[in-house]
């Protein structure tokens, strides 16, 4: 019970009943021994002002210690963006669909990263991996094609 400048004012019977309920709860919680409860209840009968009531309960307003839970709840994970899953799948699956799979992986990877930025969904790593695999899948055939053209050009220059 806070007095906030009213400590000198006379308390009502309802105020004394409220303090008595608080003392009973403190005794039930084990914050007061029987002797302390009995002494404070006796003093409560004699109390006339808010200041006297406050003195009976001042040490009962301490914060209750926080009990650490036995387990930590697992935070909810956001749903995974489906375009990121498609990008990663085609990035890996380009072994079966060499150039087409790489193009799908790149397109879906860019779309997934845009959607993830807007919606906050999960799957950023999958989208990025799909993009990298897709770009590698496009670059390797292009390098092979350039090598073939260069070799053909050199062979034509030698024979021609």
Describe the fold and architecture.
The chain has 160 residues and is an all-alpha fold. It has two domains: 48 residues; 78 residues. It is 68% helix and 0% strand. The protein contains six helices and no strands. The longest helix is centred in the C-terminal third of the chain and has 36 residues. The mean pLDDT is 88.
The class by helix and strand makeup works out as mainly alpha
Number of strands: 0
Distance between the termini: 106 Å
Number of helices: 6
Mean pLDDT: 88
Show unreliable segments: none
Strand content: under 5%
The quaternary structure here is single chain
| String of helices and strands | HHHHHH
Helical fraction equals: 55-70%
| Rounded Rg | 39 Å
How many domains? The number is: 2
Largest sheet entry: none
Overall geometric form: rod-shaped
Keywords:
2 domains, 6 helices, rod-shaped, 160 residues
Secondary-structure blueprint:
Blueprint (H helix, E strand, L loop, with lengths): L12 H17 L4 H13 L3 H8 L24 H12 L4 H22 L4 H36 L1
What's a concise summary of this model?
This protein is mainly α and 160 residues long. The chain has helices at residues 13-29, 34-46, 50-57, 82-93, 98-119, 124-159.
